[in-house]
Design brief:
The structure is a homodimer.
Chain A lengths: L6 H12 L6 H7 L8 H13 L3 E4 L4 E4 L12 E5 L5 E4 L2 H14 L2 E12 L1 H4 L1
Parallel strand pairs in A: 3-5
Antiparallel strand pairs in A: 1-2, 3-4
Helix pairs in contact in A: 1-3, 2-3
Chain A binds a DNA duplex through helix 1 and helix 3.
Chain lengths: 129, 129
DNA sequence: TAGCAAGCGTTATATTGTAACACAATAACC
DNA sequence: GGTTATTGTGTTACAATATAACGCTTGCTA
């Protein structure tokens, strides 16, 4: 059972959940002007908390944020993202086998990963036609 | 056989090659003030070209750039990076097996990846002690 | 040698992210 | 309950990263 969210955290999460794609911190801010969000730090602080609790993800190659769609995402070692350059859709995937391969590499090389980023940029099935 | 590099491209590549870690675009710019580099676009244009030819990599989670150390890096489908949060060292790895797993996922899901990012943030062997 | 593509230098601006400060709300503890 | 530590808030100012746009040069190449 996670802690309850504060007002700002809930607002940011709600905005990301309603969006059908990744949003930048500043577009979240714009969406929430009317709700009392005035300045970047308010958004970034909420984002930071939501990231830590795993409710959202950050897409490093886009500098953007997305709500986690996978109900038991936290149970996965790594989460991968396939980002379509054409339609902007983002597919979140679990990659159990990839997890294992990465773990193997880590063990072989004595590296302890705290956070793993896997992002594919390309063209999704619908857009390929 | 690739084309020869222009002066700016060679300067940027040289700076990255001499560095013992990733550099931001702006620190490259600072390093090259004396060589005639005056403004961000000059650096970013050189970086773009070097990225396209595979001579350097961009670390998405750091907004930084690094010279490719792997002589036949282009032959790999994907390149992974393990970034030590303590010492800042970056280990480039090939991940043949991971490549294959990702390819499987792509095939299964009809996704055509043009660029793949794999970055591990954590602690390297020497720093763990 | 005319035309085109790529690169250059420059100015200005857009986008993304933090530092720092004073204060308020919440939770933890005796 | 009252005290204290922790976390979050609102704000101003600023740092760091990246791109748009313009006119010019260079080097092919047809």
């Amino acid at each position: 059972m996670g802690k309850a969210l504060t007002k700002n955290q809930a607002l940011v999460l709600d905005t990301l959940s309603r969006a059908d794609g990744p949003l930048s911190a500043y577009s979240i801010l714009d969406d929430l002007r009317d709700e009392g969000m005035q300045a970047p730090p308010q958004v970034y602080r909420a984002l930071e908390k939501l990231l830590k609790t795993g409710l959202i993800h950050r897409l490093e190659s886009l500098n953007a944020y997305i709500a986690c769609r996978d109900p038991d995402c936290v149970s996965h070692t790594v989460t991968g993202f396939a980002i379509c350059e054409t339609c902007g859709d983002v597919i979140e995937f679990a990659g159990e086998k990839i997890s294992r391969q990465l773990k193997d590499w880590e063990d072989d090389n004595g590296f302890l990963a705290e956070k793993t980023t896997i992002e594919l940029r390309g063209i999704c099935k619908p857009c390929k036609g």
